[in-house]
Amino acid sequence: MTPHTAADVARGVFRLLLQEGFSPLLEFSLANGRRLDVAALGADGTMLGVEIKVATADLKADCKWPEYLDFCELFYFAIPPEFPEELVPQTTGLIIADRYGGAIIRPSPRTSLHASRRKAVTLRFGRVAAERLAQVGQLSPQPCGQLEEEV
Hints:
By secondary structure, the chain is an alpha/beta fold. The protein has one domain (6-121). It contains three helices and six strands. The longest helix is centred in the C-terminal third of the chain and has 21 residues, at 115-135. Residues 146-151 have low confidence and may be disordered.
């Protein structure tokens, strides 16, 4: 069996989060200079963060993940099915995913964000999402099939 890549796990996490009512973004930079593998915003404004691990050595050497917690209300590690679950910190949520989907195996504890931090993270999330959409050409200066006639 071929080991799963981080891209495989990210794809499954993306699908899972969409099913759960979250709007996900890959590689979301935080104000402290760290970067979440996946950040997602819930319909109620909940900020969710995911750190993907596909190699045990990577997880064991990672001491930066606690720095994500100040920017998320929910935090998960996402691992492929063959990854040993017992290595994932028990104080976080756990998602198992492959390229086809994922499942929440252990719910994340919920923390609260200060109102000013929540606003800053939410605004950044919206701006990043809009900029990425514009970069892929989804928005053009003049929409196809003019909605209004030029004056």
